[in-house]
Amino acid sequence: MNQDFLIQVGAILDSKYVLTEDADKAPYLTDWRNRFTGRALAVLLPSTSAEVAAIVKLCANTKTAIVPQGGNTGLCGGATPDQSGKQVILSLKRMKQIREIDVANQTISLEAGCILQTIQEKAAEKGFLFPLSLGAEGSCMIGGNLATNAGGTNVLRYGSTRDLCLGLEVVTANGEIWNGMKGLRKDNTGYDLRDLYVGSEGTLGIITAAVMKLYPLPISQWTTLVATQDISSTIALLNLFQQRATSLLTGFEMMTKESLTLIDKHFPQMANPLKGSPPFTILIELSDHESEDHVKQLLEAILEEALESELITDAVIASNLSQANSFWHMREHITLAQAQEGANLKHDITIPLSALDRFISETDALIKAKYPGIRIINFGHLGDGNLHYNVAPPEGVDFKAFNAANEKPVHELIYSQVELCNGSISAEHGVGQLKIDELRAHKGEVAHELMKSIKKALDPQNILNPRKVLSI
Ligand code: FAD
Ligand code: MLT
Ligand code: ZN
Q1: Bridge partners of 42?
Q2: pLDDT by residue (tens digit) across 241-272?
Q3: Residue whose CB lies within 8 A of the most ligand 2 atoms, among 348, 349, 376, 426, for a mutation test
Q4: How far is CA 208 from the centre of its chain?
Q5: Which range (95-104, 162-171, 286-295) has the least confidence?
Q6: How many whole angstroms separate alpha carbon 392 and alpha carbon 402?
Q7: Residue 146 CA: distances (Å) to CA of 70, 138, 171, 405
Q8: I want to staple 211 with a disulfide (CB 3.0 to 4.6 A). Which of 152, 167, 237, 299 is the partner?
Q9: Does any ligand 1 atom lie closer than 6 A to the CB of residue 73?
Q10: Does the Cβ of 175 fall within 6 Å of ligand 1?
Q11: pTM of this prediction?
Q12: Distance from the alpha carbon of residue 381 to the mean position of ligand 3, in angstroms
């Protein structure tokens, strides 16, 4: 059977694009965090939508499960195969054509394997901003961004990947190509198939291309780091910026003292320019299409008001682009610093801003009481109510042993608190294989059953990324 499959796939792809040797497959078999490792019959590397369609048809005929993969930077194990060795990985990385930049329509049509940073650069060459931005942008791909509905640091102003997507091309579970490559801002022709595929993590179809929105490039950007003492003044500060700067506010990221302790330890060259390790360091960015002076004066005026009303205790405005970049590097290196420290227990959650103060104070207290000495590495996209509320064992305690004994109860404690606050257990990273049980427990019975019905309707043989998102 396996041999049959490989012979038939040889009629679709040149043998150099069918990886079967262990050494060739290895880079595709483990996720970015080294949390999951699987086995695969082969890694397939098509270069056109027609090849993807032919592969899916073959998989449908032979009931072979497919795990789609982009840049393999996902944080929930969605792109990692199971242990059976019978699944195939379908990597989209050779599909990297930019099909068109439509200047009048302010859109870009491109294939799933385009790397996010390359898209940003190509858009900028034409005077446009492609606003999706995240720490993994040098290697994640637009197909993966769409499949996970990635968020990142610009959601506050431009929305998540779903909000940036106007059209899609998708290979369905029976190997047909759905051409939904329309660059329309309005289209009410029945059920929204595009929005169904966005965020489906490879379980409903293979995204092969997309039409994405572009925006004018801002001509001036000002970035500041400010110190706050508690979460309620941080939220009041966010509201102040939202009122005064409205759509010029493009970033509002929060880093706790404990998060920056990891930066000090693993990337000491990126030290926080704010003195005295404040409880909260907030990175704020304003962007404008008018002169530099306008946005700078606005930023200074808001900071002055915030100082006077004691919402902040200190502030540093980046004096040039390189200092602004260094502020962002410090923020974006928290993930890497955590990885170097050890595999902590990750929670990517959203809480309504009005409940955030309660969530943090109650949850911090509950966890610290149950696990004395525990480290809460809390940071994230505060402007979106999105916390990366991660938990690491006390200094000196082995991560593996701590996680093995406490992973489930720690998750359950935090996710119960999330539910009490009417939040979500996955803000932007998705579900993958990491959060299947938690999704079932917290999504709600009706919603979970509806999701299963959609999966069965679109993938009746269950060949697309089985046991990801749902346990089927
Ligand atoms: P992969 O990891 O390859 O795949 C992710 C999922 O999508 C899998 O389920 C896979 O099967 C499916 N998939 C991939 N391509 C396709 C396709 N063409 N069709 C159908 N299904 C497909 N995420 C955020 O949201 N915000 C952040 O700020 C953020 N920062 C990060 C920082 C770092 C340092 C790292 C390592 C990750 C970060 N992530 C973040 C997570 C990750 O980068 C995103 O989830 C990203 O969108 C994944 O893209 P990828 O191409 O690597 O997808
Ligand atoms: C981030 O905001 O830095 C990312 O989502 C990655 C992470 O949560 O570690
Ligand atoms: Zn994030």
Answers
A1: 88
A2: 999 999 999 999 999 999 999 999 999 999 89
A3: 348
A4: 19
A5: 286-295
A6: 9
A7: 10, 16, 14, 35
A8: 167
A9: yes
A10: no
A11: 0.98
A12: 6
CA of 335 to the centre of ligand 2 (A): 6
Per-residue tokens: 22: 């262990």
- The rounded Å distance from CA 332 to ligand 3 centre is 9
Q: Which long-range contacts (CB under 8 A, 24 or more apart) does 114-119 make?
A: 114/141, 114/142, 115/71, 115/139, 115/140, 115/141, 116/140, 116/141, 116/142, 116/145, 119/212
8 A C-beta contact, residue 311 and residue 236: yes
The predicted model gives 134-147 an average pLDDT of 98
Q: Which two tokens stand for residue 460?
A: 């009746």
CA distance 132 to 142: 10
pLDDT tens-digit map of 304-335? 999 999 999 999 999 999 999 999 999 999 99
| Contact (Cβ atoms closer than 8 angstroms) between residue 223 and residue 283 | yes
Instruction: For residue 160, give the ligand nearest its CA.
Output: 1
- Indicate the helix (H) or strand (E) that contains 444: none
pLDDT at residue number 1? 61
Q: Is 148 in the pocket of ligand 1 (CB under 6 A)?
A: yes
Compute, in angstroms, the gap from residue 109 CA to the centroid of ligand 3: 26
Continuous segment of H or E residues that includes residue 145: helix 142-148
Instruction: Say how many Å lie between the CA of residue 142 and the centre of ligand 1.
Output: 9
Amino acid, res. 359: F
**Cα-to-centroid distance, 131 and ligand 3 (Å):** 15
CA of 380 to the centre of ligand 2 (A): 7
Phi, psi of 179 (to 5 degrees): -95, 100
**Which amino acid is located at 463 in the chain?**
I
The residue assigned the tokens 């046991």 is 467
Query: And the tokens for 61?
Result: 């005929």
Q: Whole-angstrom Cα distance, residue 6 to residue 19?
A: 10
Check: CB of residue 465 under 8 Å from CB of residue 88.
no
Q: Please say whether the beta carbons of 245 and 284 come within 8 A.
A: no
To 5 degrees, how large is the angle CA 149–CA 153–CA 159? Answer: 50
The verdict on the CB of residue 235 being under 6 Å from ligand 1 is no
* Smallest CA separation from ligand 1 atom 13, residue: 144
Domains and CATH numbers, the chain: 2-91 (3.30.43.10), 98-216 (3.30.465.10), 220-335 (3.30.70.2190)
CA distance 148 to 16: 29
| CB distance 380 to ligand 1 below 6 Å | no
